[in-house]
Each structure stands twice: as C-alpha cells, then as structure tokens.
Amino acid sequence: MPPRLARLLLLMVVDSSDSPFLIADLAEEYEVVLSRSGQSAASRWYWSQTLRSILPSLSRTLRKRFFAHRESRTGLTIGDKKEKESIMNLILQDIRYALRSLTQKPFFAGLVIVTLALGIGANTAIFSIINSVLLRPLPYEKPEQLMALWETNKKGAEITVSYPNFADWQQQSRSFESMTLYNGWGPVTARIANTTDRVEVALVTKDFFTTLRVKPYIDRTMLPEEHRPGASPTAVVSYGFWQRHFNGDRNLTNKNVSVAVSEDTGFAIVGVMPPDFSYPNRTDIWIPAESFIGNQRSARGYRVIGRLKEDANLKQAQAEMEGIGHSLAAQYPDSNRELTVTVKPLLDNLVGPARQALWILFAAVGFVLLIACANVSNLFLSRSLARQKEFAIRTALGASRLRLAGQLLTESLIFALFGAGLGLLLASQLIRVLVSFIPTNIPRIDEAEIDLPTLGFTITLSLVTCVLFGLIPALRGSRSNVQDSLKEGGRGAGLGRGSNRALNVLVATEIAFSILLLIGSGLLIKSYWTLQQVKLGFNAENVLTFDMELPPDYKSSAQKITFYQRLTERLQNLPGVASVGLVNSLPVSGDYLDGAIYVEGQQGKDDYANYRVVSPDYFETMKIPLIKGRLLARSDQGNTMPVTVVNQTLVDRFFDGQDPIGRRMTSGGMDMHGDILVTIVGVVGDIRHRGQESAVMPEYYLPYTQRPDRVNSMTATIRTRIDPASLIPAVREEVSSLDKTIPIEFALMTDVVASSTADRRYNMFLLVAFAGLALFLSISGIYGVLSYAVTQRTRDIGIRLALGAAPGAVIGLIIKQGFKITLAGVTAGIGLALILTRLMAGLLFNVSPLDATVFVGIGLVTICVTLLASYIPARRATKIDPMIALRFDG
Amino acid sequence: MPKGNFLAEFELYLLLALIRLGDQAYGVTIRREIESRTGRPVSIGAVYATLGRLEDKGLVTHQVSEPIRVPGGRSRKYFHLTAEGERALGHSTTMMKKMMEGLVFATGKEEVG
User: Fold this and answer.
1) Which ipTM was obtained for this model?
2) Contact A853/A538 with Cβ under 8 angstroms?
3) Quick check: A22 and B45 CB within 8 A?
4) Closest residue by Cα to residue A782 from A868, A861, A719, A697
C-alpha cells in the first residue's frame, strides 16, 4: 500500500476533480517502483512525488476555487487583465514572494520550520494518543450508558464485588436496564483436541453480551438456561481464537467441538464473537460464571458493569446504588461493613490512571509549542530589522500597511504549513515510538494514528501557531518609518524601544514556561528517586522466574504435588542454581490474592490479609528474612498440622505485641468449603508485594503441600550463582523433560521489579524530554535576543570601547540585560508552577507538589544556563573593533 | 505563467507529450514521457495542475475512460489537444525555431534548429 499519510495529504491539496485520477495514477506507478526496487524505495518515491506535487496542486486548487464562477460565465482566456488585479493574484504573489524569501535564507527558514515542526509534531502525537484513548467512544452501542460498579470502602478504594451482593444490586436497582458480573481468569492453559494454548478466559454472567449489546459473529452466545449452575458447559470464543485453531470454519458450532480450560471439563463452543471484541481483557474464551462462583458474600473478586436505562442518569444511579449499598451494609455487617457502591462511566474506569498522565503530557507539549512560537516570533522580529529598508521602499512606492502586514502573515502561514507538514511526518514516527515503549496496557492506545480528527487538530494548530508567532512581527514590521529607514546608516534601522520590549517579554515568557516544565519533571524525577530508596524486602538480583500452568490432566492433589516436588529437585540440581522456590503470586507482578482472616480469640479484629501459597525454600530464594519461630518445612505435609508463616505487619496489626507463635487463625476466603484453622509457626520480614509505591499488607504464607487445590498456576523462582538468563535453556529442558505440554514464560526478577515502576519512568522520561526541548528553545531564544542586541548596539559599544571601557564592563552590560530577562522569566515561571504543579499531585510519590529543593534547584540551574547563553554574545561584543563599529551601517 | 500568447516551457512540454502519446495520454504516461525525455524529475501534481490550466485556456480537453475490467478497476483521465491547442503549439514552436535559427550553443553538443 502507498503511504496513507501521503495520500491523505494529496487528497487535501489536489483539486477534487483531479484527485481520484491523480492518486490512481500514482498508485499505478507505485506498484511498478515497488516491484522493481522494493518497499522502502517505493515509499520514498511516493513521498517525493507527493511533496513536490503540493505547491502546484495547491496553487491550482486555490485559483480554481476563486475563479470558478467567473470561468463558467466568460471562459477565461490567456492574459485576462482583470485576473491580474484580483485579490487572489495578490495572495499568490505573496505566496511566491514568501517562498522566494524562504529559499533565499535557507538557514533561517530551516530553523523556523524545524522549531515549529518539533512543537507541532509533539502536539500531534500526544493528541492522537489522547484522541484514541480518551476521546473516542467505546465501540459499543450507546457507550455512554455503560457504567462500571464497584464496592468502595470508607477510604474510597474500589473493591471487587461478590456474587450475592451483585445479585441483590441487580434485583433492587431500578436505574439499570441490565447488569452483569464478570471476571478475567488470567491466562490459563486450554486444551483443544491435541494442542494446548495459553488463553485468556473470562467468566461472565448471563446478561454480559446483552449489556454490552454485542452480537455474535457466528451463531449465538450462551442461552439463559446454559447459565444455570450445573448446566452442560458451553463457551463462546473470540474471532482470533477461531481463526487460530479452526481456520475460521463456519460450521464449527455444529461439530460439537469443545475446549477444556478447567480441570478436564470440556466447554462446547456455541458461537464466535466479532473480530474487534475482546472485552474484558483480550479475552479468547467466555464461559458462564454461574457454575463457578460461590455464594459467600465475602468472596469478592468480580467486576460489574451495568447499562443505564434510557431515562436514567449517572447521578440518579449513584444515589440509588449508594442506598442499596447502605442497606446491604446494615443487613450483612460481617461482609459489607462500611462498604458502599460507586458507579462510574465504563470509559473512565478503563482508562483510569492513564487519564491524568496523558492530560499532563498534553499540557506539557502545549507549553513546548508556545515556547516554539515565541522563539519563531523572536526570529521574525529580529529579521524585521534586516528588512526594514525593504519595507520602507515598498511603503514609499505606495504599499499600504495592510498590504505589508498581509504579506508578513502570508509568510508566517507558509512557514506554519511547512512546519505542520514536517510535524506530521515527525508525529507519525513519534506515535509509533510512544506506543511501542508504553509500559502498561493502556486500553486502545495501539489504535493511535494520524486520522482525520488528528489531522484537523494539526491544521488548526498550525493556523493558531501562525497567528501566535506571526501577528506581533506583522504588526511591528509593517509600521515602518520611511525617512529614518532610508537614511544611510541611520539609527532608525533598529526596531525601536517597543519592539525591544516585545522581544524581551517573549523570551521571558519562554523561560517562564520552561521553568514550569522543568519543575514538573524535577518533581517526577525526585518521586522516582524517592521510590527507588524504598526497600522491597527481598533481593531481586540473580533470580530467574517462570510462570507455569498445569494442564487440565493434572487432577489429583498427589499428581500436582509430585510434579512440583520433582521439578524443584531437578532444578535444584542444575549447575549454578543456589535454591529454588515456588509461589502462587510473585511479588510486584501485579497479582495478589486476599481474603478476610480471623484470629482465634481476637473478636472483632477481622480484616483483610493477603495470602501466598509457597514451597519451603521460597524464603531462602527470595532472601526474605526469618524474624521469629521457624520457616515452612518439607515436613509440613497434607496429613500434618496445618501451618502458616506470617509477616511482621500482620503481627503488628492483629497481635498488639503478643507472641503470635502457636496462635491459630482462619485462612481467609481462600477455603471454599468452611474455614481451616492454621497455626502460626513463624514470622518473616515484610515485603512490598504490590510494588514500592504501595503500603505493606498483612500477609501470610501457606505450604503448597497443604493447599493442593491452589497450585494449578505457580511461579518458580530460582536463585542462581551465575547469570540468571544463561540458565533459561537448561531450565526449559528440565521442565519439558517432565511434561512437554506445559507452556512456561520466563522473566528475570529484576525486570519484574523494573516493570512495576515502568509507568513512572515513562512519564518521567517524556516530561523530561519535553522540558529539555523547552529549555533548549528558550536558551536559543535568549541567545538570539542578546546577539541581536549586540548587533544593534555595535556602534554604541564601539564608542565605549574607543573611550577606554574595559571589556569586563561591556560583558557586564550585555549580561545584565540577559539577567533581567531571566529573572523576570524565572519569577513568573515559579509563580506559575506554584499554581499548576498541584494538578500533578497524583503522579508524585512522597514528594510535595511544592517541593522547595526542586523549585530552588531548577530556578538556580536555569539562571546559570541562561547566563552562560548570554555570555557568548557578550564576549563577542568585546571583540568589536571601534574603527569598524563607527563605520557600521546598521 | 505564460506571458501574452506564448506558452511557458512546461506547458510546451506537456502539449508535445500529448502529441507523442496520441490516445494513450494519461497521468502516468505523460509524467513518464516528460521525465524520461528531459531527464529531470516531474511531479504528478505539476502535470495535473498545468493540464488543468491548459484546459481552462481551451488548449487541451479530456475524457474519462470506462473503468478497467478488473476487480476494483479504475477510470483514467485521457488528455488530448484541441484544435486551438494545436494552433498554439504550432505557433510557439515556429517562434522558437525562428529565434534559434543559426545559433550554436557553447555547452550543448548538438546544434539546435
């Protein structure tokens, strides 16, 4: 395919009566070039054709539009005198003139265009991401009616929902047309005929597809009776899964094919969903939830969405659900105490935390663009100096001020359009980079592209920039004093006090905006640094991990335990391995499991705690220290006393300084059938299981040998004495020699830890990059203004030097001017930051938005850097030869 | 832009290309014809824009072909000279010949005229 962007560009500039033919012609030749010289050459060829076609086409289109009515009446012929006088001709003349001056000063033109392109490109890229993530509606019918429902505790934290609560909501609420409860099961190993595949499975209740209003692509979704507990198991699969495993066989559902995802139950496939549907989480298989969910009110872990009735609104629904929440809390204090219900738009819920970061980045690039505009405005103003005579002559010959201003604006428009063109190219690359490096799965971000809304944004933006940077120079430049300017060597060649002030204000503004961005990124850097100081509580160095999921053929507890025992032994014996541990949810990986626990003899202190199922050597492998008692041991078996090891936070929370060893507690919601009491045998150090940012949770560890129903999916952790990555082939070999069908995924523990702060790093790098760009632009701004000042004052400085002024005094003179501007900018910038940084409080970690170190540090650094930038032109001023300066024809 | 009744250089090339190509003159062939003969790059946008201008002046006319008989086949815009166009071309080339008569160009290898 020819490059889409180029084609879009052509469609915009070529007259509509020609464009289909022109584009088809280009496509025809493109194919030839493609077959002869390959993809990249063909793209290059297409782009060069496009870029070189812009000017002739644009001029033709404009002319045609303007003369359309006249042509039809008179049939214009060559050399029509009236045409020559038309406004259109004046505009074309201006355009030609602008293009000529652009080619005459290629360095100036290049500088302006690149500056604008950087600003416009960065804005376009971020906008296209914002557009695809935040602005575009969800791809369901009437998406604004879709709401996410959560239980919330008194701190406002969103908690997942249990089935009985959901059932009560569904029954009691009147604002919702329908409501559904669902849950992603995470990747599991599915068996289809003789193959296995890692797939995402979602448990859904019966109104799932009707609530979203999604129709199956083939056949049907589950029937209501298939959603009854105990019904014969059925499933719906994704389009991708259907293509992958059944080659898009349209008769699939008649063939009674089934897929096994849990134990050995086969789910008969009854339908296929459309290609773009994968809710909730790139799901491949949807199965009825009703057979799998318990009836315990405390067994949370599900998510709920509902569709509002036509006449209901969010506020009503929120009020109603709060009421239901309160009455449930009163009715079931054991499970629902202090919990209420929150309703929020599904889109907000999906996009969630990304929203704030994206808007902040957008604001940041907006400021970069403003700075770029100020800089270009500066360049234009300074250049007006050189053109003063030209304008004077034109004024003398009868050009009106409007005419001159018009011409200057046309010039800025041409620059803005070139900047926008280059910016678009830049943006299309930048989007790809931004999307591919984005660490977390922000929904819909991979759909970001340069589409029509983005293009519209860019064009509007370039028009706005044109006015922003073009207006002041146009107004100032067109006001020229004929007599003064034409006098040979006259002082009138300067821009006058007013323009000097305008230049200074522009640069001060640039500095102010840069300070704002620098302080913003400084705060993020400090947050990140603070975060890095937080101890995780375990040692991630030299640990290799891999996830595994036992296939459905492992049915009995003995089978599972034997497998893990043999695996551990084999891995243990590999050369270079120090110890091997197993855990059901790896720290910092994002997985965690919790449930309410109850300590014997501690009435009313029940609370949530996280649990892990581990092998005895897990603690040694992760270097989690033992504080008291003993660790789990190989002797803790299914037929011995049920034991647990707890962390220090759990002890602090539940035991008030009493000795926890030997005490008993329930093991939370994890026991489906009644609670087993476990005896605490040891206390270990805290780890930050959910990453450095979150608080330590009360946690307890259970031996996997006593919890065989919880070990279908485990993560092995291997502490190595050699480079952990080098062990991957050997480990893979060992696993597959035990069971070839188990798919495994490796990760270095250090990478897992790094990826937990990847979001932060990403935001930080982006903001630092934008702030750096801003600083660079404003430094070049101050440099430009001072260089201009030196040129303007050459004669003045020359006289001073001739009269014996010391070079130091001259340097001081220029630097003083720079310092004044800088100080004004820094003050304004810090003021701005004081107001605006609180908007980014959510992105900070243990750092105040008004952190003094950052504010002062950034202020000082900026002052130093700008003074350095002033030194270069100041130094040049001392090199002025008085003899030449006095002859200087400014 | 042509001055007076003269044709601009690129306009002249286009009219000559139309004559050379006969009934096969559409975007692709015209562009290639000029590019391969003059050896300088020609953009498709310039070809269409200039042909449009010549059409406004009544020197060139076009007809749109039936779609080509393949799936997704497209129509082509075929251009040809009008009688007026032939006259203008004849006029311009005659003028040029007259101006060049007897001249030898120092850098060129062949004698023009």
Assistant:
1) 0.85
2) no
3) yes
4) A868
